[in-house]
Write a structure and sequence with these properties.
The structure is a single chain. The protein is α/β, with parallel strands linked by helices. It folds into three domains: 161 residues, Substrate Binding Domain Of Dnak, Chain:A, Domain 2, CATH 1.20.1270; 144 residues, Rossmann fold, CATH 3.40.50.2030; 204 residues, Rossmann fold, CATH 3.40.50.2030. It has a six-stranded parallel sheet with strand order 12-11-10-13-14-15, with helices on both faces. A five-stranded parallel sheet has the order 5-4-6-7-8. A two-stranded antiparallel ribbon has the order 1-2. α10 crosses α14.
Length: 624
């Protein structure tokens, strides 16, 4: 039973749990939570009616003359007190979502850059450059000399160049060198090539202030600049440096789902987005002294699992088991088997603390940017990382020793193949001597593969967890479309068994033939949300190889985030659209249909040589 009345479910009609999730483990734990009278995000979503005006961005609260609410059924019937039209209000609201999402990813990228700088300068001893090949490749792509040079000298020059991604006030960010020529020409013509992230985010935010930019088309130019500095800037920095420091992923077999918990071991879960916390935790749980301490209290060992995006990076690099995606983070605590739950940044639900208290599991925050009331904070210091991670392990061992609740671990566990970086896909298609995307392009040209879809992103309690991801991807591969995955979507597909070579059985005849020939799954897991940049690089490489068009907008590629929830997802979607990719979201979209701003994003941007947005909630209709 629940230990904390504060978290008890209010008395109300309860929905069918099977309507909330297609994840068997999560459903089992939600049923247990009901018996235990413990509230989760699913219960809160069922009891919280979404504001229809807010959902469509038909309101403005940017000054004290409001808040002003416009009627989404007749959006041009009135304006805000200042005279702002529905298009001004919507574009400002959308801009702030893009700015916040870009800031989140840019902060992640800057943190990774600072870590690399510390390693290069000798100030950080707990990490080292693991992939010198990737270091050289990234440096060369940015015009940095690498021949006959010492590794740290190359890395130091790379750090200096990548600083521009965040702080440059004039010119173009370094990674535009990777953008196809025609795509870059379109950006320059439209004046949307980004400068540094800090400049673009600040510029976008100040334009949304009351009395500032009131032309939705002009504001959209800055929205595009800001989104592009996310995809081709901060996020790309995070991915490239993670590969340099921790190793570029290549296929590894890994287990996913709550069945990865072990009742006879100390179970530690790390959840968040910055991989260096988990990298240090890997060292800590393998420390002989800590393993012996666990055995002294009766544990068979220490079992480390990841959740969400940092968990996906560890799954891709080390095969560390993954317990589930965003909407399973509370549910996994209901097992009673989690002895410590450590988090860093992004997608951390405040409700974790209350659920954890009900089952005697401490939630540990580790990053100064993300503290939670009621959680125990142990600051992670990259100069001495083991201080934090060892402390979490020791407290987990203490909790194991004092377990006094019944443990219930769902038996579900799926094994799949993960870790398909851009570099490995290149090698997989052509081998060491002929590494190239040419076989992919050729098979698209000859019709075996109809195209490539990036199905990525979050899960959202406003729709049935995982279901749209799974059904959409099944439909895509059945129609000979190769699917690339990142983020919570990848976990959903892994749980469904679609990340194995055997899943090619569900693919159409053309894609199945290619998968069987290469020995790959029809669904390729690329890692965390920031690793959507691997998809951008893959698109650029497809253009470079030739035969499918001269720009990203010419390619038979599309993107989808069927269950998105966060501002980061909007920023990601916008940088794909601005890069030339047709991008479809599910659940909802924060714009009133058929307004001028809606028409710009959903139709007119494509006419400018970019991509366009789409919205579809039902997976079978995505064919249309």
């Amino acid at each position: 039973m629940a230990h904390n009345n504060e978290n008890k479910i209010p008395s109300r009609k309860k929905a069918n749990i099977e309507d909330w999730t297609s994840c068997k483990s999560t459903a089992q734990m939600l049923r247990k939570a009901r018996v235990d009278q413990v509230e989760t995000a699913f219960e809160r979503a069922a009891d919280m009616k979404a504001c229809p005006i807010g959902a469509k961005s038909a309101c403005c609260k940017h000054c004290a003359m409001g808040p002003c609410r416009l009627n989404s059924k007749d959006p041009y019937a009135k304006t805000g007190v200042c005279g702002a039209t529905i298009d001004t209000i919507q574009s400002r609201n959308f801009a702030r979502m893009v700015a916040t999402g870009t800031a989140a990813h840019s902060s992640h990228g800057r943190n990774m850059l600072n870590l690399l700088k510390g390693v290069v300068d000798g100030k950080i001893k707990g990490y080292a450059i693991k992939d010198t090949t990737k270091l050289n490749e990234v440096a060369q792509s940015l015009g940095i000399e690498t021949e006959d040079r010492e590794v740290h000298a190359i890395a130091r020059d790379l750090c200096s160049e990548l600083e521009k991604v965040f702080h440059m006030t004039e010119g173009e960010i370094p990674f535009v060198r990777k953008v196809p020529k025609k795509t870059l020409e379109v950006w320059r013509k439209l004046d949307i090539v980004p400068r540094g992230a800090m400049v673009e985010v600040v510029e976008l935010l100040q334009r949304t202030h009351a009395g500032m930019d009131q032309d939705y088309q002009n504001l959209t130019k800055q929205i595009n600049r800001t989104a592009l500095v996310d995809g081709w800037g901060g996020s790309m920095v995070a991915t490239e440096i993670s590969d340099i420091l921790f190793g570029t992923p290549s296929p590894v077999q890994g287990e996913v789902d709550m069945g990865c918990l072990k009742e006879d071991q100390v179970n530690i879960i790390v959840h968040g987005h910055e991989p260096y916390l988990l990298e240090s935790m890997v060292e800590a749980v393998n420390d002989p002294n800590l393993i012996e301490a666990a055995k002294e209290v009766g544990a068979a060992g220490i079992n480390l699992l990841g959740m969400c995006c940092s968990g996906l990076e560890m799954l891709s690099r080390h095969g560390i088991p993954h317990a589930g995606n965003f909407m399973s983070t509370e549910a996994v605590l209901v097992t009673g088997a989690v002895d410590a739950f450590g988090v860093d940044v992004q997608c951390i639900q405040q409700g974790l603390v209350k659920v954890g208290k009900c089952y005697g599991t401490k939630i540990f925050t580790t990053n100064p940017s993300c503290r939670i009331e009621g959680a125990e904070h142990i600051e992670f210091d990259e100069h001495n990382p083991r201080t934090c991670t060892d402390s979490i392990v020791k407290q987990a061992i203490d909790r194991f020793k004092n377990r006094n609740l019944e443990i219930e671990i769902p038996p579900n566990k799926s094994v799949g193949v993960h870790g398909f970086s851009h570099e490995y896909i290149n090698y997989m298609l052509g081998g060491s001597f002929r590494a190239s995307y040419a076989p992919l392009n050729d098979n698209i040209i000859n019709g075996r593969i109809r195209g490539v879809a990036g199905v990525v992103g979050c899960v959202n309690p406003r729709v049935k967890q995982d279901w749209v991801h799974i059904e959409l991807v099944k439909e895509l591969i059945k129609n000979d479309i190769l699917v690339l995955q990142t983020g919570c979507s990848q976990v959903a597909l892994a749980k469904a068994g679609l990340c194995t070579p055997e899943a090619a059985y569900y693919a159409g005849p053309g894609l199945r033939e290619v998968c069987e020939t290469v020995g790959m799954p029809p669904v390729l897991g690329l890692g965390a949300c920031v690793d959507n940049t691997r998809i951008l690089i893959a698109c650029a490489e497809m253009v470079k190889v030739g035969g499918l068009g001269d720009s990203i907008a010419d390619l038979p590629v599309a993107g989808a985030a069927p269950e998105w929830y966060s501002e980061k997802a909007i920023a990601i979607g916008q940088y794909f659209v601005a890069s030339g990719v047709y991008t479809v979201f599910g659940v909802t979209f924060p714009i009133v249909d058929e307004t001028k701003f809606h028409t710009l994003l959903f139709k007119e941007m494509e006419k400018q040589g970019l991509g366009k947005w789409g919205l579809q909630r039902i997976p079978m209709k995505w064919r249309d």
